Amino acid sequence: MATCTTPSSSLMLTYAVSTVHSQDLPPSILSFKSNKPTFSLYPLVLKASRDRKSGLKWANLYPQRDSKHVVVASVAAEAEVAEAAEEKEGVVETATATATAPSKPKKGKAALPLKRDRIRSKRFLEIQKLRENKKEYDLKTAISLLKEMSSTKFVETAEAHFRLNIDPKYNDQQLRSTVNLPKGTGQTVKVAVLTQGEKFDEAKSAGADIVGGEDLIEQIKGGFMEFDKLIASPDMMVKVASLGKILGPRGLMPNPKAGTVTPNIPQAIEEFKKGKVEYRADKTGIVHIPFGKVDFSEDGLLENFLAAVKSIETNKPKGAKGVYWKSAHICTSMGPSIRLNIKEMLDYKLPSNI
Question: Model pTM?
Answer without folding.
Answer: 0.61
